[in-house]
Amino acid sequence: MSQLPEKAKVVVIGAGIVGNSIVYHLAKLGWEDIVLIDKGPLPNPGGSTGHASNFLFLATHSKEFAEITLDSVEQYKELGVFTQCGGIEVARTEERMEEFRRLMGSSKKWGIESRYVTPAQVKEMVPFINEETIVGGFYTPGVGVVDSLQAGTLMREYGEKKGVLSSFPNVEVMDIETEDGVVKAVVTDKGRIETEYAVIACGVWSPRIAKMAGAAIPLTPQVHQMISVGPIDVLAQTDGEIGYPIIRDMDTFMYERQSGGDMEVGSYAHRAILIHPDDIPSIEEAEMSPTELPFTEEDFEAQFEHSLEIMPDILGDETAGIRHAINGLLSLTPDGYPLLGETTEVKKLWSVAAVWIKEGPGTGRLVAEWMTHGVSDIDGHHSDISRFSNYARGEYHSAQRTAEAFNKTYGIVHPREQWLSNRNVRVSPFFQMQKDLGAVFFETAGWERPQWYESNKKLLAEFGDRVVDRPNEWDSRWWSPIINAEHLAMRQRVGMVDLTALSIFDVKGSGAVAYMEKMAMAKMDVAIGRGVYTPILNVKGTFKSDLTILRLGKTHYRVITGGSDGPRDMKWFNDNRPGDDSVTIQDMTSALCTIGVWGPKARDLMQSVTKADMSNEAFPFGWTKKIRIDGVEVLAFRISYVGELGWEIYIPMELGLGIGQKLWKAGQEFGVVPVGIGVYGTTGRLEKGYRLMSAELDADYNPVEAGLARPKVKKADFIGKEGYLQARAEEPAALLCTLTVEDHTSKSGVKRYMQGGEPILTLDGEMIQDAKGRYSYATSAGDGPSIGKHILLAYLPPQHAKVGKKLLVEYMAENYPVTVAAVGSTPVFDPNNERMKA
Amino acid sequence: MDILVCIKRVPVTGAKVVLTADEQAIDASYLSFAPGPHEECAIEEAVQIVKKHGGSSTALTLGPDAAVEQLRYAASMGVDDLILLETDEEWPPMPTARAITAAIQAQEKKFDALLFGNESADAGGYQVGIRVAHALGMPVVTGIKKLEFEAGTAVAHRQTPAGWEIYEVPLPAVFTIKEGINVPRYPSIPGKLKAKKKVIQRIAPEEGDVGLEKVRLVVPEAEASDVTILGHGAAAAPQMVELLGELGLV
Amino acid sequence: MILTLIEHDQGVIDPQTFGMLTAVRGLAAEQGGALHAILIGADVAGLAAGLGDYGVTAVHLIEQESLDAYAPNAWAACVVEVMAAEKPTAVVGVGTERSNEVMAHVAARTDLPLAANCLAVQPEDDAWFVTRMRWGGTLHEEARLHGEPKLLTIAALGIEVETAPSGSAPEIIAVIPDLTDADLLVRVISRVEPERKGISLTDAPVVVSGGRGVGSAEGFAVLEQLAALLNGAVGCSRVVTNNGWRPHAEQIGQTGTRVAPELYIACGISGAIQHWVGCKGAKQILAINTDAEAPMVTKADYAVIGDLHEVIPALMAEIEKLKG
Asked: How far apart are CA A292 and CA A326, in angstroms?
């Protein structure tokens, strides 16, 4: 072993599956002077990789996870460490079978082969299962196990042989030095390494290492219990590591995975057991390894019984002993996604944490590409570590949320399901008003936002048949027909929507115009007072974000983006700021609250509270103006995300309540209704075909496909221009369309309502795939009360992207007829936007 | 035959021992507990004796409420009955032996054999089994690595550097067991479930005169590492041979 | 006066006994100078004279035909009888299996506390302050030993034996013990010679020992070959016996055998406390391990960092080369 170098291009900390994957891909991408260190020995330094059960299940609702896992499988195969054995997720309940039907849709749209299997078919593949405990299964033949330690060794060897990597076990990081917010050196117990980049791939230790540099990696180590039972003859007789499919006993949150002559039984069913990163024992102190803590049997009692129920013959054999039992540590995050990317706090300090075996190599490639090119082939924006608001980067939030998240690992999680822990963190000035009106709060980025108001229940009678209820419990979970009634009342009269959760930041300075031109696809050098909606592109010309920019002065812009997009967008804007002081960025989110006033009576309402001229002539669509309400100066922006006449009003936070009450009081005369985000984010939006970041828009689609291309390309250079020009020159592989559901009646006669995510099929029931290999599915779904139809948005290849085209949508294993109602950004409601511009 | 096996809850240590702040015990924050290795074999022996000769097995421990875990472990290996002599902390050998003696005398069941570990893994006092034997007027053989029963007598084998010593004693008798007498089984899942349901007889003993009074524990200073690295991998072979030569071994 | 128990078997005094005598000599001097010994057996008078070299001033010689075979409780009865007659301030044995056993019987018979395996003894007015071994010596306990006289055994393995500066022949005091059948009930009725398959672990000049890193039962083949080449014996760690790769008889450690060879070669052994206790007596330790920071490596005298399955074959080839 040679001496630790004094200088490096990049120091990767942590030699588990993640660190090894990172150095491998950096080496492949041409990086040199890569140094990999770990405080433990090689090949098993004692982190979570060392005790992982090493299996890869493929089916998931998440596109990001699916893509990363499939890429990881390919890489493991290339390394020769993948053993395909198949995996069966089994159901003990009808509720789980329904989840499988939903999961099948996800498998299809990510191109994963899965099929339903009967208990008898499960028994055929896994003869020692008690098929009477299960009602069915979900079989994915491509599931397999890997040797993650061997994979790591091979990956290191690649870099070492290429002469660009040196690996140092038994080197402990003591400090990470920074200068002016940029990484400078990694200080270890064996010496100091000056380095341009540092990558934290330390799994459960990551928060502790990040803290040395003043950065936050919000993950919490948690216990996952696993026992190994053997010897079991029937298993010992198979060749090699595994001969039977892995069983995931989903309803008991457990798995049974053969490992040679033993059966490994793991659980996600026990109470959340959180371990603070500072409380993880050292290698020397640990009885087994630092991440294999003593087994707490009392947490596994029910699991003993459940495992006996499903495999009574082999696990009930008294000669098969529990030879190994651990409380294994793994990394959990507040929202279940990994923590990837440059940290918000320190430049050139990258986090690659909370990545499990099934994501390791794929994540390694993703992050290495991101570090090299500024963008990756697989879109990892859900996992972008900069997604967290400041409050959510702390240990408290992470501990609360991950404790709640643990039992969701194998749970059935509704797409609209709300977190229960650490709520009421960020509230608008109108919070109490909303509570008094019976608001049902949903959370975004810590903000409490009314999804609908129970006080609007009376509107149900008013709108009668036009409000469609959902008879199926799943369809109506975390939903209320009141949303649709609020929608109709707004379209008929006027509604008030609390938009305080929007992220707002101001861009100022002599370089602001040029800088904003660089950032945005749309022209930014517009008249003062104009507001512009624009895509924000990454370097390859696909979506980084979409947002609205107001030009408030010669050198003053205000950027308005989604509450949960804000931190990520703000980092993107900050990262691309000129090196000098010509542009400053100031986060205004906590300084301003926002109310949307929309509906045919919006002008009457607004005019009744201000002396400013609110007429269409004086205050046209797309313009901003400072107006006074009761003497308080507020900024009004004539815009709408719900397709109605009206304004967004930005008010200094402390003055918000007074203005809100004033508007509410004045609105009574005009029949004002409080309107929730159910309308703003779903029904109103979908009727207008407005795109949503992370649903319709991500780095897999370009503005042409999304129907957001401008008539002309602006002269100024901007990030992603090259890719955008190329996309314009090409025939789009898919176009975002609005579809309407023609018949909701299922075979059982119950009307079913799609929730979003469902595959779109041809009338023959075939999946639709575009020229780039992407399958069509509903990126969003929701009611369109004003058009009387359920609306889906979906990308369709050109041959299907035709108004009137008849297709099918698969929902819970049944197909329903749909029609393409609009292609591109043309809305299905008020296609000429007459209402907004009235 | 009715067999009693006495066990002690001890931490399973890693490569480095850390003490609690009061220096009275090992900091077991990161450690699990188990019966000592000798005692684990004693449990296995008890279970095997009962399987061969019939009768019943009982496990007894003196320790905190948490020691229930070790009793249940014994039950999961197949022990029938469980007795906990509940104390707040570790007791020295004399009161431990007195409490065990009293508990045995209080049982309706008259045991044919009492099994102990040869010495506890942690305290290593080498005396509790012998004290109990004297108090109960039973013969005691220590360091047993093979044990056979025949018509009211036991033949016990003890390993010494010079070979095997054979003892023959009438029952009831006390035997202190050494690891190696058998290979203790890993508990099965059904064993675990059975153990969970066992009722534990709880007794609150009185400590009395301690005799040997623990003041504190000390971790002896480790000798400074001055290891000479001869080399890496196969390339180190010549240096190794050189070392063997210096030591006169080749 | 300090009364010591002389441990012997088959006509030979256990060498650790001399370590114990070396250690208590100073103590005896502090307590008034007299250092007595007690020798028990059927034909042990010949062993008494030499004890003077180690500072023993008087030997209580208990010779009786019934004590021909080792009988721990009878030995204890003899000690108790001498105790009663001589009123020593302390009775000291050596910290071996046998002496610990006899002293525990003494303690039980007299209802006195016993401190086993003491490393240091500090007489004080009432209770004596002792430091004793726990966990096979990886942890020490400081304790107060009550009772009168004090009963203790000395952990003598690490003590360098020294003869007394003015050794002279001890006074021999013959004692006829009053032994009952009960005292003699537990006694060695026969002996079986150890099965000699090659050289024994405790006698071998080289022990080639394997741990988890060997990987499998089959993996021990290279260790056996190396041991044969060096005229050594094969040992293993507790993990290995638990995995069923090797018999318990080969286990080195706190609950296995403790060895003290010229060279201990630890192959793929991490060095948990349990194991270290068994091998730390070796003159030299050579660790072969992939982990340069493994406790076994850092505590060893020499180490080779690498996979034992590569290192050992290379070593054997090198030895063969040397042997021509």
From this structure: 6
Which chains have 3+ CB pairs within 8 A of B? Answer: A, C
How far apart are alpha carbons C303 and C286 in whole angstroms? 5
CATH 3.30.1360.120 fits A427-501+592-699, yes or no: yes
Would you say B50 and B111 are in contact if contact means Cβ atoms under 8 Å apart? no
Q: Could you tell me the CA-to-CA distances from A217 to A186, A360, A398, A544, A719 in Å, in that order?
A: 17, 18, 9, 22, 28
The encoded tokens of residue A533 equal: 């909606």
Mean pLDDT (whole number) for A79-97: 97
**Residues of C with Cβ-Cβ distance to A169 under 8 angstroms:** 291-293
pLDDT confidence of residue A442: 98
Give the model confidence (pLDDT) of C290-319 as tens digits: 888 888 998 899 999 999 999 999 999 999
Cβ(B63)–Cβ(B207) under 8 Å? no
C-alpha closest to that of A276 among A398, A404, A422? A398
Q: Which helix (H) or strand (E) holds A230?
A: strand A220-230
Give the pLDDT confidence of B182-215 residue by residue, as tens digits. Answer: 989 999 999 999 999 999 999 999 988 889 999 9
A639-664 per-position pLDDT tens digit: 999 999 999 999 999 999 999 999 99
Assign domain C2-174 one CATH number from 3.30.930.10, 2.40.30.10, 3.40.50.620, 3.40.50.300: 3.40.50.620
Q: What number is the average pLDDT over the span A532-553?
A: 97
Who among B15, B127, B183 is closest to C272 (CB)?
A: B15
CB atoms < 10 A from the CB of A132, how many? 11
Residues in chain A: 838
The predicted-structure confidence for A441-454, as pLDDT tens digits, reads as follows 999 999 999 999 99
Taking contacts as CB-CB distances below 8 angstroms, the residues of chain A near C295 are 284
Q: Which residues, 6 or more positions from A199, have their beta carbon under 8 angstroms from its beta carbon? A: A10, A11, A12, A13, A19, A22, A350, A351, A352, A367, A371
The model's pLDDT over A104-115, given as tens digits with 9 standing for 90+, comes to 999 999 999 999
Among A332-336, B52-56, C254-258, the minimum mean pLDDT is found in: C254-258
* CA atoms of A270 and A304, how far apart (whole Å): 12
Residues in C closer than 8 angstroms to B12, CB to CB, are none
Angular region, A446: left φ>0, alpha ψ -120 to 50, beta rest = left
Check for a shared fold between C2-174 and C206-323. Answer: yes
* Mean pLDDT in residue range C244-259: 85
pLDDT value of residue A551: 98
Q: Quick check: A266 pLDDT over 90?
A: yes
Interface test with A, best of C288, C293, C299 (most A CBs within 10 A): C293
**Comparing C-alpha atoms, which of A568, A520, A572 is closest to residue A548?**
A520
Q: Which CATH number does the domain C206-323 belong to among 3.40.50.300, 3.60.10.10, 3.30.470.20, 3.40.50.1220?
A: 3.40.50.1220
Predicted local distance difference test score (pLDDT) of residue A1: 47
